[in-house]
Amino acid sequence: xxxxxxxxxxxxxxxxxxxxxxxxxxxxxxxxxxxxxxxxxxxxxxxxxxxxxxxxxxxxxxxxxxxxxxxxxxxxxxxxxxxxxxxxxxxxxxxxxxxxxxxxxxxxxxxxxxxxxxxxxxxxxxxxxxxxxxxxxxxxxxxxxxxxxxxxxxxxxxxxxxxxxxxxxxxxxxxxxxxxxxxxxxxxxxxxxxxxxxxxxxxxxxxxxxxxxxxxxxxxxxxxx
Length: 225
What we know:
The structure is a single chain. Helix 2 packs parallel to helix 3. The chain has a four-stranded mixed β-sheet with strand order 1-2-3-4. It has helices at 2-26, 43-59, 119-137, 153-159, 163-170, 189-193, 204-210, and strands at 29-37, 68-80, 88-98, 104-115. The protein has 225 residues and is α+β, with helices and mostly antiparallel strands. The protein has seven helices and four strands; from the N terminus they run αβαβββααααα. Residues 1-24 form the signal peptide. Residues 149-182 are annotated as: Disordered. Keywords: Signal.
């Protein structure tokens, strides 16, 4: 029982060593990526795939020093599904690694498939599939998929709001600032019925009337009774 177990273990270790050696041979420091395509490939697919692969290459860090190369990606034979095959899209991808002198180091060719309907959405899906397939094959940093555009009616309505409503809103009269309310003084009933005291000027008659009477003197013509 022990011998078959040891043989299986040795076989697994041998396969692992071969896999590690093959991986170390293909592992390269890719610091520059260029993407080109023929006339059958949509320009949007080429542009998006190039952007994603360039970001992935810049984000990749190798734990040990490995040869630095340049990656040339060639896209061709894009096929868009029609009829019952609508949404099934594919493209051929050829990847060539070149050393500092421009000589080819390795070359690989494969076909990438994606499944998405709509022109813009299909372009993004195919570009994402191509970038992710190449990044996995050459041990690059994970590719961030390009988001698919979504309709936002609320934002569109705000953007196309007529200018008259904007101007009316900006020209709307401003509310006057609140002022301090002065206290209201209500006079009492007694205050309303009081008559002002005004001293009248003394006349000569009033002065005479207020004076003490003179003593009566009896004369031939005046009687004091």
